[in-house]
Amino acid sequence: MELTVLNSESKAVALEGMSGFHTEWVGGSPRDGAKLLAQRECPMSHPVPEPSGRPLAPGERLPRGDRETLSSRAEEAIRALMVKYPDPLAATLPALYVAQEDMGFTSLAAMKAVARVLQIPEGHVYGVATFYTMYQKKPVGRFHIQVCTNLCCALRGGAQLFERLCERLKVHPGEVSPDGLWSVEEVECLGSCGSGPCLQVNQETYDEFVDDARLDQIIEACRCGDVPEWGK
Amino acid sequence: MKENTEKGNTVLVNIDGREVAATVGSSLLDAALAAGIHIPHICHDPRLTPTGACRLCLVEIEGERGFQTSCTRTVAQGMKVRTQTEGVRASRKNTLELLLSEHCVDCLTCDKDGDCLLQDYSYEYQADKARFPNVAPAAGEPNYTTESFALEYDPSKCVRCQKCVRYCQEVQMAEAITMANRGGSIEVSTGIGISLNESSCELCGGCVNVCPTSALYDKQAKGLGRSKDLKKVRTTCTYCGVGCQMDFNVNPKTNRIVRVTSEVGCIPNNGSLCVKGKYAFDFVHSPERLTTPLIKENGEFREATWDEALALVGKRMTEIRDQHGPDAIAFLSSSRCTNEENYLMQKLARTAGRTNNIDQCATTCHGPSVAGLGESLGSGAMTNAIVEIEDVQTLFLIGANPTEAHPIVGLAMKKALRKGAKLVVCDPRDTWMAKRADIHIKHKPGTDNMLINAMMGYIIEKNLHDPKFVEERCENYPAFLENLKGYTIEKAAEECGVPAHLIREAAEMYAKGTPSSIFYTLGITEHSCGTNNVRNLANLAMLTGQIGKRSSGINPLRGQNNVQGACDMGAMHMALSGYQKVTDPAVRAKFEAAWGVTLPTNVGGRVTDFMEHAGEGKLKAFYCFGEDPIRSEPNSTKLAEDMAKIDFLVSQEIFMTETAKLADVILPATCFAEKDGTFANTERRIQRVRKAVDAPGQARPDWQIISQVATAMGYPMSYNDPGEIYDEMAALSPNFAGINYERIDKVGIQWPCPTKEHPGTPFLHAGRFTRGLGLFQAIPHTPPVEVPDAEYPMILSTGRTLFNYNIANMTRKTAAIEHKQPENFVEVHRDDAAAIGIKNGDMVKVETRRGSLVVKAHVARKVRPGMIWMAFHHEESNTNLLTNDAFDTTTRTGEYKACSARISKP
Fold this sequence. Notes:
The complex is a heterodimer. Chain A is an alpha+beta fold. In chain A, 32% of the residues lie in helices and 15% in strands. Chain A has 3 domains: 2-32, no CATH class; 72-131; 143-223, Glutaredoxin, CATH 3.40.30.10. In chain A, a hairpin with a 2-residue loop joins strand 6 (199-201) and strand 7. Chain A is globular. The model of chain A is unreliable at 1-59 (pLDDT under 50). Chain B has 5 domains: 10-84, Roll (Ubiquitin-like (UB roll)), CATH 3.10.20; 108-281, Alpha-Beta Plaits; 296-364 and 562-571 and 602-739, Rossmann fold (3-Layer(aba) Sandwich); 367-556, Dimethylsulfoxide Reductase, domain 2 (3-Layer(aba) Sandwich); 794-904, Barwin-like endoglucanases (Beta Barrel). In chain B, helix 14 (448-461) crosses helix 18 and helix 14 (448-461) runs parallel beside helix 20 (530-544). The interface between A and B is large, with 46 and 49 residues.
């Protein structure tokens, strides 16, 4: 959607002057030969917002993503989810996972698409997506690897595992590798406190004593295409 | 449990040692508050679902561990509750200190100082703001409100109570805002990263009104006065006919209205307002207001004294009256002004003016309701009260768009929907209600009677009508029945352009869904068959017995703040105040005795007649009060030509309108914020209007001006205050006799109210129609005067939108509104747009036989194919240049809703 600001094409009101007294112009700025609409003492002495240099609304600090729409496969998957619940609102979380997988990360466009398919308010989707950390609001690699470094895993070398992972993939936390394949993240818990250390690639969990050899296997499996990629 | 609640069953709860009776199902907090026991609360609002977010309403319940949030606990028999134990108080203090650690504690420069719950409770509990390190979000970061002209969000004052979000979702159902992020960075935001102005925000300001601190505040009020410096003046809104009660927050030092608030619990709006009530008051202090009398000399206005202007008006009006007779002068009263002023205006016309040529804009809008319902039922008003709407089981909306034109009635309907009501909408556009309707009949404009007749035929065929009601309470049924024979569902489906099964389902839903209620507005009346449309809706209600009960009836939603009152007060040619017929000898005798004159005997006419007579040169003098017919009547070009032929035109106005520009004398008047009086809202409730600020310059209250004009015309009038005028009117009008200013000081009363003891009448026609028997009438379908042809193949319909009001010379003075809706537009169906090669946002030329305009196209599927729709708010692009000056045969109401048009690339 194209965003209109204070200026719209045919009739724009430009405001000039100090708080408390301003001049209004129709048809752009006065320098462009606009017509004087009114010159008035502003009844409410308030700072008039700047019409140009539009600041970012909170959501706009988040990236939109390259893709604007869901694939038809993902859209179908979300529709299939919808019928499982009495209220489409309830399908928000799984639908967001589908969109994340489809579009590579939970971009603003992905949130919009979920709201559109589920026919629920965008605000609801936005609130949910920004609340949960499992939705990646910034671009990640096609393989986003999360490693648990919480207490149980830490006792069994979770932090070291994470360090080795970064070394092998040559990527720092919060970055995406130049080939776009890899990104890594330290997380609090992946639900395998009895069998750590553990990690998760996209939606696949590897939760049984992941050591060096197992790590290599997992990376190799990703390279061979055995693990579903995001945003493919 | 629901049953118990309905019976009003109560339980006894012990709160702080006191036995408190509480309704089963109510919350502990509500029970305590009702008993006068104060429990602190920030996130509670009686209109919202409780969430227990703020943790301040904690109490101890005997036998339970820890503390409980009293807002989320329902009462139970024998519950023992303590609200002020040491533990509870310590917990509350702790919570407040945590809140303060996320708050900028900026009371020195805060507008909300003196009206802030956080401030009040912090003081009460002596909360220490320094106990925890302050982690308040930085102020001044751009957010979703940065560009808004209406409101501003300051996260450093937000206590995350979510009242704003819940109000937006649950009451307004606009779904514009949400809570974003988590933990310390949680904040209010619009849906998906867009500014407030681009979101689905309806600018109702509800989020600002419910905010317990100053996290959300009215941007334009910033720095103009702290809450504790402001004086609240309760008054009635001046826009649509809902009659919302609102409080002007006035700074007495500057004589300025700073902001508008409304109190939860007030009738009829329960603390809710729409964009117009909340924000459209900037016009009051506009420098464009008229401040001195003006007299036109040699084509130019010059300033004049009041004495000079009044003398000139008196002299010219009497001269013309005496020279050309009573039909050469006419008076146009104003449905925007008070009852008192409308009463005086018709008194002026009939005493000093000696003519029945008196009218107001009901002719332009709900004249057909007054006439049609008056004929069928005996009273032309809304039959039910607004508070009854939430209990309607089937809402039947036809030609009505309440969420935009009557937003607070819209809220009542939304509440009914949340309670499970069914919704049938007959409207050629996809309005908010239509999108959520169980059945949406998107019929062709001008085919209402075809639709209604077919529905009634089907109701009788399926035996869904109420023969007992028809038999006992109505007459002329056989003739009505005979007429229905020609109208089958199939024929209607074809003529209206909708699937037949929808018409059947709608008929069933309406007939079965007791209580059902019909709501309509100008989509019904503004047709050349407007009065017939109304009569037919009355037929439908009578046939099914869906009238004369609580939450069931036929409800014309009146468009102007006091159009009901202007009719009530007799500002029409055929009736005096209280709908007493001018031709009735007893009535005439009563008024003649009271006024000391012989009442005029000419028939008189309506505003559309006046304009026609002006064009023919028969109308020589015209007194126009608070109206701008050039902008509001159809076919503006012809109208302006006709008006230019009037010898002497007086305009009593607050702004230099198009009509005022033609006037010979302009008398500067006051707006509703500057005078006292009463308005009657759409549900017949007479409510107080109170003076909040002084009038600008030499502007005078209208009732004074009218009195002075009457005196100048040789009929002395003198009143000390509007109350005196009201009492004179009430003494002459049985419908209003029981109402006086004292009785309606807090809550308005719905007429009829014949005696001082009478409580008023929430719904009409209980047991018996005002007329006696309800009159069935045989109503044929007649197409609009102009139907599409090869030259003009489309139908143009007009109406108003949420953000602006009618000709918008008041609403457009508010920057936030101008920001939201800066220009005129035309809604075009996607297929029609594709046919001429335009896309959304392109400029398009709209032409009718009367004129053409180039406006921006809103291309979507909102309107039917073959139809276009425009609002009439923008002066620089006057939609009424296009509309057809064809009129209803009974009431002379213009056919705004259907004329032929074509569109092309400009």
